[in-house]
Amino acid sequence: MTTTSQVALSYQSALSNQLDVAANNIANMSTTGFQGSRPMFAEFLAQVDSDGTKISYVEDLGTIRDINQGPLGFTGNKLDVGIQGEGYFVVEDAGEFLFTRNGNFQVDDSGRLITSNGAVVMDEQDNPIVFGPDETDIDISRDGVVRTGNGEIATLRLVTFANQQDMEHRGSSMFATEQIPFEAADAEVVQGMLEGSNVVAITEMTRMIEILRSYQSAAQLITQEEDREEEAIDILTRTV
Asked: Where are the domains of the chain?
């Protein structure tokens, strides 16, 4: 394989990963609390000759998460809670603390406040929020205080992190991290609303079209280089 083909192939590989990221963003456009991702690339220079000649390859470095807030949509459900500002709800799942902006909550048979996936929502003391069988008329204030007709029950814990990019995806809208959380002082909760995905459909569709066109161009370059090689071999092996 020639250097030209190798460069084009490295570009195709990066484009393939970029296409996967865009496709995942599009697939989660309707996922509550989903934050889209963007690929990161760099130029990798490889020396191919003793005179210092270098070839530029495409290096795929991974992805970066878009932490901008998604739009808040009204649901009217008192157990739906959106976050206004920077922060995450703290939940517990199988003994592990996870973090999410998806406030689509419900109450299980034990009276615990849980996520739609069954993770238990934590209060400020990292204890489950539990409702009694006679507690109705749930109200959640902007500072996260949960009240019923019987009075104050608990306060939702809202946290953030020094490096939000250093968080591992667990599903579409859950995250895990070894960082120490701290209080999200500027965050507010809004009852009866959910945060939508921050993915912009037209932007992702446009990006996908551009990626496909670039991929086709790289494939065409490889084909042209193969044709050039075959022609050169044919000329050099002709009988004079």
From this structure: 3-67+199-236, 72-195
